[in-house]
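User: Here's a structure from my thesis project, written as structure tokens. My advisor, Dr. K., wants to see whether a designed sequence matches the one we expressed. Can you design one independently, without my sequence as a hint?
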């Protein structure tokens, strides 16, 4: 890929060699970021990184309007099938997303159930009271020991 603006870049054989087209998703097999989104470098190192789903959408469908992000309708970050991608506002993308799934969990990471008696809520945050009590005990014991 060259240093051309994104709207005139042509996806070449090297790019497509890193795409595995399944029956539904087109999965990127190259480099990904820590969240699993495919990325390629633009130009010589250290070049700008592009997300492959944005690049594919722009090249195969058209430009993405300023201020919009690409929502993966299939919820697969490595997918770049243009039929699974939709430009939306960040707010819409967040509302459609699963986030980290925390609000849907019924138990904390240590296995305590989120019940009204065992759950502290403040704003949109919840905390397991049993874990908090244990944390406070350990902290007090460590402070007392030192």
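Assistant: Designed independently from the structure alone:
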């Amino acid at each position: 890929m060259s240093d051309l603006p994104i709207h005139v870049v042509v996806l070449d054989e090297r790019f497509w060699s890193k795409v595995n087209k399944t029956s539904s998703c087109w999965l990127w097999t190259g480099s990904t970021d820590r969240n699993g989104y495919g990325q390629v470098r633009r130009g010589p190192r250290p070049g700008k990184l592009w997300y492959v789903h944005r690049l594919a959408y722009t090249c195969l469908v058209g430009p993405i309007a300023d201020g919009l992000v690409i929502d993966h309708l299939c919820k697969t970050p490595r997918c770049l099938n243009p039929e699974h991608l939709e430009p939306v506002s960040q707010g819409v993308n967040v509302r459609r997303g699963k986030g980290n799934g925390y609000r849907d969990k019924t138990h904390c990471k240590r296995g305590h159930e989120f019940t009204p008696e065992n759950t502290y809520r403040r704003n949109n945050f919840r905390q397991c009271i049993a874990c908090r009590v244990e944390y406070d005990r350990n902290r007090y014991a460590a402070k007392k020991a030192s």
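When you compare it with your expressed construct, this may help: The domain at 6-96 is CATH 3.90.75.20 (Homing Intron 3 (I-Ppo) Encoded Endonuclease; Chain A).
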